[in-house]
Structure formats: structure tokens, C-alpha cells
Amino acid sequence: MLSFFWLRCLLKMVKGNIIVPEDILSFCCNGLQSSTSPPRPREPEEREEAPGAMASPSPAPNPTEVQMSQLVLPCHTNHRGELSTGQLLKWIDTAACLSAERHAGCPCVTASMDDIYFEHTISVGQVVNIKAKVNRAFNSSMEVGIQVSYEDLCSGKHCSICKAYATFVAQGPLGSKVRLKPLTPQTEEEKIEYSIAAERRRMRLVHKDTLKDLLTHSPQETELETRDGSGAVPAERTRVESVELVLPPHANHQGNTFGGQIMAWMENVATIAASRLCHAHPTLRAIEMFHFRGPSQVGDRLVLKAIVNNSFKNSMEVGVCAEAYDQEMSVSRRHINSAFMTFVVLDQEGQPRTLPMVAPEPGDGERRYREASARKKIRLDRKYVVSCKQTEVPLSVPWDQSNKVYLSYNNVSALKMLVAKANWVLAREKEKVRMYTLEEDKFLSFRIEISVCIPAGRAFSLLSNLRRRHEWDSHYVSAELVQKVDDDDMIYHVVSQKLRNENKAQDFVILASRRKPCSKGDPYVVAFRSVTLPTHPATAEFTRGETLCSGFCIWPESEEMSKVAYYNQAMPGYLNYVTTNVAGLSSDICSTFKACEKFLLKNKDDLISQLQDF
Q1: pLDDT in tens, 506-555
Q2: How far is Cα 147 from Cα 166, in angstroms, rounded to an integer?
Q3: HotDog ACOT-type domain: from which residue to which, for each copy (predicted)?
């Protein structure tokens, strides 16, 4: 009756020559159209579509794709008004499980989750967008890729939060395994993910062996780094234990506890442990790859334990485990899961603060302390080796007379761009040698610097001559000058020592470009990059190596003092050596740079060597 009332009013208005706005007339006519009368066509509106807005529906190329959008409400946030990481983990696990069940056609459970790196925090009022799809199905397990971003509804800004890979297992009646149908990738992106999924699976299977091997072959350095103004905090003070009762809202339709819910509880106790070390509110930056060892059901009591294993310069690792027992305590506690989480404490500018040191307990505490360093190295390896596709690794550029100016410019500008990066983080300091790292999308770069009592110009002359590098760098066997391009550019054939697990020595063809300061405040620059020469092709005698961007920058601090810094954008074959030093499992880089200091001091007044340099 109400619809007919408005229709009669509309007709009276038209008969009385009352002008009705077209939008109102169109709304009424379209809203009251009969089933036999098509709506009057309207002119399309010209309006700008907000980034990320839903376009016209189109079939997803991957039938397993699931999209979830969640508005962040105050009940989802912490005291800072930021989305709780535990809540985000629950949403990630739910979306990934729905994607897995789309492919399997039956219930699925979370088996493992790869490393997760959280790039940004999410504030209340913003929208979390999660996209999950199956990358590859194996016999009874499948890998699900998850992409998480946030959307600011006021500004329209979109930003990536994290990318994760989860493994799910399909379960039939009574928990029996289900053989999965194969997945056929369609798009280029899906084919790449499908191919790499097999390598990631192999990495998961050897994860424990990798840690054991690293600990076996690494020297046991027990020396603690010196940090001004901070004393060691006993690890026992950070210990946390809490219990949770699994209720029906915490479980899936099979009665098994959601993996995301367990992860959220684990994140909660880990945050408390981290807070007890730093006496501040920490921010979760990464979660180590972990495996669920068994299921938990409604009615179980989950005991969650956490403790800080190790504190690095600007981050700390918290170990946390979950154990389950039933009401009757008829059986001993079941180990459900163990995870390792990396926290930082941010200052007002959003930069990581220096953290107190941890004094590990004798026995198991010392073991956890050392394992935390090994895991840090493994995380760096996985983050920068696995994510770096071989098709994207740049090859050595052929050098000839036509492009020598461009290559020299590219060589120096690449090093200067690396030097100008703002996000360098102090990773280690030993014997006045400071080691910094820079984590980017697909590369791990490092910087080593020290102050030396030598004029900057003299240090520049000594370090730009690769033929003398073997005098202080034990990794260099020889460096032959192949071609002098001009006074500032030389091409060398370098032979280095054998790498671990390699049967042959490495050789490089390197373009060395040097620049004196253009104005006051500029450093002396010596840049290195790989090139190819027809006269020096790769041979069976050596393994041909590459360097993408490396070199020295030397700043004069006074007439007799200089700050010498070496930069290197580590290539995949060199990462194992770098990350071992970053994690504190080796001091080889620091020792090499101390040898460089001795070389500079020994030769700073040698007039004969000055005439021979470069």
C-alpha cells in the first residue's frame, strides 16, 4: 500500500505541472517498475573510481581465490588504536582455510605457516583486504598464498602489509587424509608461484636440518656485544605462562581449534614477554616459520609459555609454545605448536630503539640464545634468497668502447644511491668496526665502516688499487689489470678463494670506477661492478661470480683522520657468508676490515707505493 501511495503522489505532481527532479523520478520509476516493464535507461555517471574499488564482476582466474575485507573496529585494536596482530592472524588463517577448502572440497586444517614479515601497522577505521588462493596442491597438502593490504577509506590510500604462505592438509572422515586433485595454473603469476611452491616445500622439509647444520658448523662465540647504558636482563624475568579454555567459538565445524586462534593466543603471551624485557610496548615485526604438531579440540586447556631467547641490537626473539590437556588430565600435555617471534620497540619517529641485552640461563637458556642467532641468519637467507627470482637477477653487462661512459656512470651512481639510503640499521659493533644492514625487497645490503688515522686521499689511492687487495683481504687470491679504460676506470680479472661446498675457486671480471669529491662534504668513491669481456670468458677452471653493486666511500674527518666505509649489495652466492656475520655467528667480515685498517696505516707514508697505486 505504501508503494501505491507514493505512485499516486507522483502522478498528482506531474498532472499539476510541478517540476520533479529527474533523479527522484528515475528512482521512483525504477523502484516501482513492474516485472514486465524494463527500467528506463539512465545516462552513465562520470565519476572517478576510488583506487581498489570493486569493478564489474569478473570470474577469478583461480577458482580457489578468496577475498576478505574487514573494517578495523576499536574491539580489534590495542592500546595504540592499531590492529592487534593476533586478530590479523585469525583473519589470515580463516581466509587461507576457506581457499584451501574450495580446492579440496572437504574440511582442511592448518599444518604450517612460513615466515611472515609485517611491514606496517593498521589503524582503527581502516579496512584490511586479504586475498588467498591455492598456489599448488601436492598429495594431501597444499600451499596457499596470502596477500594482506590495508585501505584508508578517507584518503583512498592502499598499502601492503605482508605476504604469507600457509600449508593446509585436507581431512576426510575420522581425520583420514584425502588425496587432492591437481591444480592447473592459468596466468603467468600463477605459473611462477606454482613452480616456486615446490622449492618452498623442499625448504620447509629441511628446515630443522638447516638449523642443526648451521649450529654444528658455526663457531660458538659467546662474547656479548657492548651496548652503552644497558645492562643484561636475566631471561627468566621475561618468562610468561598463561592458560586458555577452548570454547566452541574458538573451533571450526569439526571441533578443532582454529590455527589462527592459537596463533593469536601465542602472540599475546609473546608480547607480554617482550614487554618485560624492554618495559615498553613492543611491535611484532616477524613470525618464524612454524608447524602445528597436533590438533586441539573444544574443551581442551591450552597452556601457553613464552620467554625472550635473545636480544639483538634493535630487535629481540621471543620463543613461545602451546601445550594442550583435557579436563581429566588423563594423558600428559600434548605439544601443539612452537613459534619464534621478532619484536622491535619504536621511538616517536618510528625508528627501532636499542634494546637491553639478555643474560641467558645456563643449559637450555644458552642453547636457545645461540639458536636464536642461527634463526636470524636463516630468516635473512630465506627472505632474500627465496624471494629473488633467478630471471630477475641482473647479469654482468658486456663492456665495450661504445658503452664505457654509461657503465662508468652506472657503476658510480648505483653505489651513491646505495649510500644515500636512509634505512640502514646498526646490526653489530666489534672492535670499533660497525656493521650495518639494509633490507630491501629482494636484496640484503651491508655496510662496514671504521675511522682510520690516514688522510682520505691516501686511503682512496690505496683502496682503489685491486692489485693490492690481497694484502689485506684473505678472500682475494689475485687481481690482474686487464684494461685501463682511462685514469678513473680500470677492468680487473679477480680470482678469489673457494666458497664453502664449492670445488672450484671463483673468478670475476670487475669494472673499478673511482671519483674524487666534487665539492666539500662529498666522499671519495671507489665503485665495483661485474662486466663481461670477450677476452676473458668464463672457463671450466673457475666458477664465474658476479658483483652487482659494491665499493668504498671515504669521508675526511680531519686532515689526518678518515671514515672508511665499504658497501655491498649481496648476491645470492654471497648471502650465506654475509648473514652468518650479521647474525653474530662469525666475525670474519670484522676481522677482514681490521686487516684493512692495518694495511692503510702501514702504507700511509710509503712514497714508493703511492707511485704504484692505481
Answers
A1: 899 999 999 988 767 788 999 999 998 988 998 988 988 888 889 999 99
A2: 11
A3: 62-174, 236-349
